Model the fold of this input.
Amino acid sequence: MEKLIKSSGAFDPLLIKNDFPVFKRRIHGKPLIYLDNAATTQKPQSVIHSIDNYYRQHNSNIHRGVHTLSYESTVMYEDAHKKVADFIGAHDWRNIIFTRNATEAINLLAYGWGLHNLKKGDEVLITIMEHHSNIVPWQMLRDLKGIKINVLGIDDKGDLLLDELPALLTERTKLVSMIHASNVLGTVNPIKHIIQEAKKVGALVLIDAAQSIPHMPIDVNDLGCDFLVASGHKMMGPTGIGFIYGRQELLEDMEPFMYGGDMIEKVTLEKSTWNELPWKYEAGTPNIAGGIGLGAAVDYIQNIGLPNIYQHEQEILRYALEKMSEFDWINIYGHKSDSQSVGVVSFNVEGVHPHDVAGMLDEEGIAVRSGHHCAQPLMHELSMDFTARVSFYVYNSKEEIDLCIQTLKKVKKLFG
Ligand code: C6P
Done:
């Protein structure tokens, strides 16, 4: 791996591709060009091997036996928590809770923290850019508890209206729950500033880092956030595993989300008490293999280096935006200001339905997403129902962008 990374931090995505078995596939007879990384990323051999190896050599339940396999599984699963903690700068691995994905992570916090700490009249601040997973759980609490949801909007460049923040952040605001990087616009929001403002009114802050953590360095201590959530499958890990980072005092105080199995300390027929962190929130037999796979994904990312990944994606992003902007029939959403962005570009080809765009790209072996991207309030704000979307990762190259644009020209000619 070290040989792949030059002293400048640059790397050849073609060599990186060799680590990913899926790229040996052909789609409709063409080499696969995978530009749907915001939906989920491809998995390197090391991640696939870690899961295979776990089932072949170690498979056992954790925390339940003194036998060798159970001990090994327990150590491997706990190690995965340690790797994630180290990855995001959390001081204690016990403050990392494994969940199924970012969606379950936010739901756990809505039930475990929100249900017991929010009361009628309290306010939760979100942004118009949120994924449905960071809207609907708070609507559930609004209907159940009578809380109010406030929404920070965006300007016509796709940046948050920070001037409106003081009016929306009051002593009634108990939580700011917001997306770090938009899965539609790519915009990276100034979360450090917003966290500092939220602290002034005593609000907690939950960061949805699903689209940022795979692409840029994040340090939860530097940010000062109270909770942060992400999904393993968007950072080269397997599906079915995600995590929460939480501040220890909050995790100690919160109520469990699910009850039974590994989350108990003692059970009598009258009363039960809870296990220590993080197991208090990991009820039942967890996704042990998934956790170990996530740990292997973190190792893979660390080996390349997040700053190098970020630099590579920024180059691809700049190139894609430059090339796409050459055509007045490609409408790009966002990327209109100097704000920081990740490698996500939503666009439409004038006069062509995004599903037709994605369908024709697929004919050429190019995978992109089309749809509302689970962000319907944002789509509504953009006066849009659907867009096509390309999103980049370590294995993407400028040549792939060229091929994508060549196909878009054919799309325009055929349908437009
Ligand atoms: N966005 C996309 O194509 P899950 O499904 O729980 O792993 O992740 C949910 C989620 C939460 N927050 C953000 C910012 C997201 O982008 C996503 C998932 C995918 O954009 C699937 S809709």
In short: Residues 38-39, 101-103, 131, 133, 179, 183, 208, 210-211, 231, 369, 373-374 surround C6P (CB under 6 Å). The chain has a mean pLDDT of 97. The longest helix spans residues 68-87.
